[in-house]
Amino acid sequence: xxxxxxxxxxxxxxxxxxxxxxxxxxxxxxxxxxxxxxxxxxxxxxxxxxxxxxxxxxxxxxxxxxxxxxxxxxxxxxxxxxxxxxxxxxxxxxxxxxxxxxxxxxxxxxxxxxxxxxxxxxxxxxxxxxxxxxxxxxxxxxxxxxxxxxxxxxxxxxxxxxxxxxxxxxxxxxxxxxxxxxxxxxxxxxxxxxxxxxxxxxxxxxxxxxxxxxxxxxxxxxxxxxxx
Length: 228
What we know:
The protein is of the alpha+beta class. It folds into 2 domains: 4-87 and 223-227, Aminopeptidase (3-Layer(aba) Sandwich), CATH 3.40.630.30; 90-218, 3-Layer(aba) Sandwich (Aminopeptidase), CATH 3.40.630.30. Helix content is 24%, strand content 34%. It contains 6 helices and 13 strands. The protein has a 7-stranded mixed β-sheet. α5 (176-190) links the parallel β10 and β11 (194-200). It is globular and about 55 Å long. The termini are far apart. The mean pLDDT is 96.
């Protein structure tokens, strides 16, 4: 059995081997999510990635491989590397207390369209409606509409990733993200799992994560590919 530190080094792989096994598609020893849910993949042996990416590209046009420091090998005849997103991983060190003043609710399947629309408004391009099935989503409503959310994405027996932290542009700078991340983090701790999160280097939200008690641990990079 792999220990927590080993799982954190390859979070997509171990999520698909454990909590998210039902979403897994294995191609040539490479683990991918069902693209209807998520378009991430992971590997240990980069000599197998070219063939796997060729096959995965037949069922989805755009997708990622997520790595700490390995470089995937690709077949340029079939797959194009659009960009490498230089990311990083944070894990909770010690949660700093935040006063929750807003009503935060657990979202349900009835909110799937609202979640999708809000994420695509703020971060268009990658979230799938069935991504809702990856974990819990929490939200804040104002004026009878969903204006801020925080969800959960990658999961193993040991950790859960805080993700999809989004606030409607008309409702920013009100502390909604801070309260939602705190609430989500506490819910993860109730499951006796480690809260983690990922972001791109230089993200303006990093000081907030650190203020809440998250600690930078390692690089975690997203290699974004497209079918040629």
